[in-house]
Design a protein that fits this description.
Length: 456
């Protein structure tokens, strides 16, 4: 009990010291900000000053969600008289080089190294929603590397404490040929303090990061960190990957279930990019095959997929196919399904999709080509999702947008002819899945009667 009290006192003393250092740094920062603001105003008054200020401001970028990692590589304090300092520096260089490789693997940006302190951030310069997971994975791999180095006969003096926090940051951008980012803000300060209260061999994360990664990792409550103006911040130690998401349940190496669950989250980033592309590049006459239709299909394939009892990977395949199934319209109206598969081939490797997954996605996309002829359950689901509107209450107004789209391209005649064609198509159409039949088939028959009433 006495030992625990002593340890607690040491932590409190360390926190008090760090808190005072941060207060001093903050006062210096505020003074610097005031000075820079005054200089900025003076610069604006000079000829060409406003342009110079605008250029300077363009070198500052804000990120709403970044995950900052601080690592303190402990080794120098264990130096003894018999140790070769030059050899020790070579060892540190080897460690840092391996850390750089790990960051590159997880697309994390190294900010800087100061002595034995290593700083990096996920979610910059390219924004993404998965950066907390990627940074924690990198942290575990960095810790595992040091442990393996020690166990394999390497130097045993190297240990590391890691601190991670997620939040907004401001990045100052410098350089032209080689661009560097220096990040600032509360998120950086808190990540540094989380690392400061940690112990050798431990990876600590703030409660903000914990909430974003807890589905993937086993985490144990560590304690609270007092943060000025914010109250106490809860911290957790990352023990390893959850057994269900790790090879052999050992918590060290992610398995296929991990990768699939990760991609389902990462899909949000991919979807944002593709929908933005559709918004900008789809022809204006696409009143039906537009962004709304793509979002509807992505949503519907997931709903039908879960109802049909699909596994996570199958849901991922379906949602990705739904996202790209009409993206080919940015290239050409005819054969747009094929063009959609080519776009999938271009984008998906960068998001970690395997060749086998991409092939399955392409097959699902091609299944939406008219007339539908699905060969398996996934293809049946996307065909039902693609024509889901036939059994919805808004069928006629949606159908009219398709007519308007075809009319502007001279692909259809009068509205009366269109309605007759619709009657023929809907009468011969069938939903392929039990879910779609139970939800839409009754309404579909009602739509046929409503269209008949509009025919002259």
């Amino acid at each position: 009990m006495s030992q625990q009290k002593d340890e607690l006192l040491r932590r409190i003393q360390k926190l008090v010291k760090q808190n005072q250092e941060l207060i001093n740094q903050n006062e210096k920062l505020q003074s610097a900000i005031e000075e820079l603001t005054q200089q900025n105003e003076e610069l604006k008054q000079r000829p060409g000053g406003k342009a110079a200020v605008a250029e300077e401001e363009s070198r500052v970028k804000k990120f709403k969600m970044a995950t900052v990692l601080f690592a303190n590589i402990e080794g120098f304090y264990k130096l003894t008289d018999g140790m070769d300092s030059e050899a020790l520096m070579d060892q540190l260089d080897e460690v840092l080089l391996e850390f750089n490789h790990i960051l590159k693997k997880y697309k994390i940006h190294k900010i800087k190294t100061i002595g034995d302190t290593y700083m990096a951030a996920g979610g910059i310069p390219e924004k993404n929603i998965t950066n907390p997971i990627e940074v924690v994975m990198a942290a575990l791999e960095m810790q595992a590397y040091l442990k393996k180095r020690s166990e394999s006969g390497g130097s045993k003096i190297w240990n590391m404490s890691l601190g991670i926090h997620t939040g907004p940051v401001t990045a100052n951008i410098s350089g032209k040929k080689k661009i560097t980012y220096d990040i600032k803000g509360d998120t950086v300060n808190i990540a540094h303090r989380v690392q400061g209260v940690g112990e050798s061999g431990k990876t600590l994360i703030s409660v903000m990061t914990y909430e974003l990664v807890k589905e993937f990792f086993v985490c144990e409550y560590f304690g609270k960190l007092p943060v000025k103006y914010k109250g106490d911040l809860e911290m957790f130690e990352v023990v390893g990957i959850r057994p269900e998401f790790s090879e052999n349940g050992e918590g060290a190496v992610p398995n296929d279930n991990f990768e699939t669950k990760f991609k389902l989250i990462q899909f949000t980033d991919l979807q944002e990019i593709i929908l933005d592309k559709l918004e900008k590049e789809l022809p204006p006459y696409l009143y039906y095959h537009n962004v709304k239709h793509t979002v509807d299909v992505v949503t519907e394939v997931e709903l039908i997929g879960w109802a049909e009892g699909l596994e996570d990977e199958e849901i991922l395949i379906l949602k990705t196919a739904g996202l790209f199934h009409d993206a080919g319209h940015t290239i050409a109206y005819d054969e747009h399904e094929y063009h959609g598969t080519q776009m999938a081939n271009q984008y998906l490797p960068d998001y970690g999709y395997s060749d086998e997954q991409i092939e399955r996605i392409n097959n699902v996309i091609m299944a939406t080509k008219m007339p539908p002829d699905p060969k398996n359950l996934l293809e049946k689901i996307i065909c039902d999702a693609d024509l889901d509107y036939l059994g919805r209450s808004d069928m006629i107004p949606v159908s009219n947008t398709l007519y308007k789209e075809l009319k502007e391209q001279n692909k259809i005649g009068a509205l009366n002819d269109w309605n007759k064609l619709q009657i023929k198509f809907i009468s011969g159409h069938q939903y392929f899945t039990d879910t779609a039949r139970s939800l839409r088939e009754v309404n579909k028959q009602k739509q046929i009667e409503r269209i008949r009433e509009q025919i002259d």
